[in-house]
Amino acid sequence: MAAEIVVVTGATGFVGSYVVKELLETTSYAVRAVVRDAQNADKTQFLRDLVPEGDDGRLSFWSADLTSDGSFDAAVMGSHYVVHTAATVSLTARHPQRDIVDVNVNGVRNVLRACQQATRAGTFRRMVMTASVSTIEDLALPAGHVFTEADFNNSATVQNDPYPYSKRMSEQAAMDFVQALSSEDKFEVVFVNPGAIYGPHLAAHHLNGSSAIIRDLMTGKVPMCPQLAFGYVDVRDVAKVHVALLTQGTAGASSHWSSSTLLTCMSNPMPQSAICWWRAFLLAIPFSGENIERLDVKSGVPAQSCLNKQGWQALHPTVITHYDQLTHDLQPLFDSSKIRQLLGFEFTAKEKTLKDSMDALIAHGEVESPAEANS
Ligand SMILES: NC(=O)c1ccc[n+]([C@@H]2O[C@H](COP(=O)([O-])OP(=O)(O)OC[C@H]3O[C@@H](n4cnc5c(N)ncnc54)[C@H](OP(=O)(O)O)[C@@H]3O)[C@@H](O)[C@H]2O)c1
């Protein structure tokens, strides 16, 4: 019998590539990797290298663009599942409505229309979509609020926070789309809402996100501990959950929006300040001796060792749009119990996430190894 087919959009991305890896390593599905340009070997070779020996033919490449209507139709036709990770992941843009919101919202509609056609053709079952905690985490809520799938970020607008707004509107667009489907066109949509995603990068072009922050801490470009708290999660956990939710979970369980969707809040619960996480990380770095000494205090991190708003913005200007809400005094709290219970799943320990991220940066030659740095 022919293998069932999973389509992964955004397959070149940080999350998408781990979803492809997880599918190839732990399932027997055939995988269609959707990328902007299937001929671009620079962007796709690292994915070809993930194919287990003797499994040639399980991974195929398809070209599609979120901004082009009908672009995903061919890739999705005849498939059984879609993991939709593709999005513009950009916090700012000159034209935020056009370049962030429209791309992400129209993009998801494009993919959903392709799923509808595949449903009519008799194969399609479920789309798992990478959403974000930024669609849940309403920073206007009082400190101490514990975020769950029941929350919705109502304060983000295209003016004040275009990326979270685009993610929220993408979810809403997907909700509206499936709700309007006739019974013969019905398929399921499941949302995964990860916090900030960390973990070892697989390709050099992934160095535009969390890996770049870790690299800059390791090299000393950012010589202090970011005074920030936010929900985070390991990229490998994110991939595992996307793949598990292709078939597991009863769609409809406890979603407040629609009877055909399941929301999954995925962020490490944060009973202690995230700043301790950063501190543990900095102390683990074996070759920034000078900085470590300054940070190595027994109880907490001294204020002077924390990078303040101006310093952080200077180093990572696009990262911090909500610094004031994210300082360690106002740590956001997430309850991720639903997904852990549903899948019998535990999050990767933060020390492992960080250690593996650092090892990857060294292995890829982005940061000198301690031995080389000390010689
Ligand atoms: N990273 C995080 O901390 C985080 C946290 C929560 C949620 N998420 C969500 O996770 C998903 C994946 O993010 P990521 O971190 O993996 O980002 P990423 O590495 O930038 O990957 C984004 C992917 O989307 C593709 N893409 C962008 N614009 C496209 C377009 N117009 N048409 C087709 N494909 C397009 C990119 O293709 P190219 O390679 O061609 O650019 C890339 O494959 C996104 O939906 C994001 O909102 C991310």
UniProtKB/TrEMBL annotation:
NAD-dependent epimerase/dehydratase domain segment(s): 6-253
A molecular-function term among this protein's GO annotations: aldehyde dehydrogenase (NAD+) activity
A Pfam family of this chain: Epimerase
InterPro entries recorded: Epimerase_deHydtase (IPR001509), NAD(P)-bd_dom_sf (IPR036291), NAD(P)-dependent_oxidoreduct (IPR051783)
Domain of life of the organism encoding this protein: Eukaryota
Gene Ontology, cellular component aspect: cytoplasm
Name of the protein described by the UniProt record: NAD-dependent epimerase/dehydratase domain-containing protein
Organism field: Monosiga brevicollis
